């Protein structure tokens, strides 16, 4: 403000993304970063104005730390604290916009940039008696901080709920967080590349950001041990474990997991766990008996083991063939149940 060297840019709204983008463009225009930025109290910068303890926007605070300047919010409803800027707004409106029509906002910004560099910068200011460019190059610019090697990447901050499935919804996609945060509110920080989750200002999870909506980005280590074990024991694992027990168990498990689904996998894992209680041989005998009767439900296999039906000495083979079982429960033909009726006229 000492030199009156100006940077002007038009935007359609004053959200956080636009405010930060304008700051970055201004820093490049001036070729450095000022030590202090006197900020008006718009929500994109100051969430709650206070002369002693203002609450700043999270993204704008990150911009401050990245470029190393100090935010100094203006006092509310005290226009003289930013009078030079207010005057510049009037000048820009009169000399850039008045009497002109632009095809687009980009055309307006191109004209504004030319006006800042080649016109207003070289006019003698009545207050200082020198041109803004002269004062800027000799007094302002030497005091600016150097630009960092990389520009600041504007993040999006918002709150999110960790649902029962241990995922937080952000921008239509689902991201996992550690299971002990279920039902808690967390803060989501997202850039173009990553999505981060914070609880009590502590980073708890980072994911690569999904480029499409509806995607599930899950880290299995976020689940408790039991859930991880379930996910790791896929169809191939179940078949391999069943093969070690016996051919009947393998055949039964193969029939259960076809077609593949989480429900079928859960059933196969539960059936294999019966070996922990009853042993491999008894489970193999129970599976064989269940196959003989064409019954492949988990409860049937468990009932066979509980009631020791797998230990019967007599032949376990069913007296009814599988072809007959597949046709239904009624094995006698319908003609045996027909009754002749006499009709009297």
Keywords:
single chain, 345 residues, alpha+beta, 4-stranded antiparallel beta sheet, 3-stranded mixed beta sheet, 12 helices, 11 strands, 14% strand, rod-shaped
Distance between the termini: 117 Å
State the share of residues found in helices, binned by percent: 40-55%
Structural class: alpha+beta
How would you describe the shape?
Answer: rod-shaped
**Taking all residues together, what is the mean pLDDT?**
87
Contiguous runs where pLDDT drops below 50 for at least 5 residues: none
Number of helices: 12
- Total DSSP E strands: 11
Radius of gyration from the alpha-carbon trace, in angstroms: 37 Å
What is the ordering of alpha helices and beta strands? Answer: HEEEHEHHHEEEEEEEHHHHHHH
What is the strand arrangement across the widest sheet? 5-8-9-10
> How can the largest sheet be summarized?
4 strands, antiparallel
Assembly category: single chain
- % residues in beta strands: 5-15%
Give an account of the 3D structure:
The structure is a single chain. By secondary structure, the chain is of the alpha+beta class. Helices cover 40% and strands 14% of the residues. It has twelve helices and eleven strands. The strands form four sheets. The protein has a four-stranded antiparallel sheet, with no helix packed on it. The protein has a three-stranded mixed sheet with strand order 6-7-11, with no helix packed on it. A two-stranded parallel sheet has the order 1-4. Strand 8 and strand 9 (194-199) form a beta hairpin. The longest helix has 17 residues, at 262-278. It is rod-shaped. The N and C termini lie far apart (117 Å).
């Amino acid at each position: 403000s000492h030199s009156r060297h100006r940077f002007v840019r038009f935007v359609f709204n004053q959200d956080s993304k636009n405010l930060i983008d304008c700051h970055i463009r201004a820093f490049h225009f001036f070729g450095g970063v000022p030590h202090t930025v006197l900020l008006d109290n718009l929500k994109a910068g100051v969430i709650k104005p206070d002369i002693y303890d203002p609450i700043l926007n999270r993204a704008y605070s990150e911009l401050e730390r990245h470029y190393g300047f100090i935010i100094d919010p203006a006092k509310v409803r005290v226009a003289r604290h930013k009078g030079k800027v207010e005057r510049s707004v009037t000048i820009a409106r009169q000399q850039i916009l008045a009497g002109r029509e632009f095809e687009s906002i980009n055309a307006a910004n191109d004209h504004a940039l030319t006006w800042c560099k080649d016109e207003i910068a070289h006019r003698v200011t009545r207050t200082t008696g020198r041109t803004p460019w002269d004062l800027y190059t000799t007094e302002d610019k030497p005091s600016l901080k150097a630009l960092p090697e990389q520009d600041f990447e504007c993040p999006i901050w918002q709150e999110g709920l960790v649902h029962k499935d241990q995922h937080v919804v952000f921008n239509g996609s689902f991201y996992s967080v550690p299971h002990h945060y279920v039902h808690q509110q967390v803060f989501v920080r997202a850039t173009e590349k990553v999505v981060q989750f914070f609880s009590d200002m502590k980073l708890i999870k980072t994911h690569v950001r999904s480029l499409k909506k509806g995607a599930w980005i899950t880290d299995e280590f976020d689940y408790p041990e039991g859930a991880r074990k379930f996910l790791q024991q896929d169809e191939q694992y179940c078949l391999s474990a069943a093969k070690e027990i016996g051919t009947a168990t393998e055949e039964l498990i193969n029939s259960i997991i076809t077609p593949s689904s989480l429900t079928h996998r859960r059933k196969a894992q539960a059936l294999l766990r019966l070996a922990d209680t009853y042993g491999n041989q008894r489970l193999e005998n129970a599976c064989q008996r269940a196959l003989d009767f064409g019954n492949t439900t988990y409860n049937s296999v468990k009932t066979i083991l509980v009631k020791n039906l797998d230990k019967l000495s007599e032949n376990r083979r069913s007296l009814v063939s599988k072809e007959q079982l597949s046709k239904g429960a009624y094995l006698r033909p319908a003609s045996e149940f027909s009754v002749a009726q006499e009709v009297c006229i």
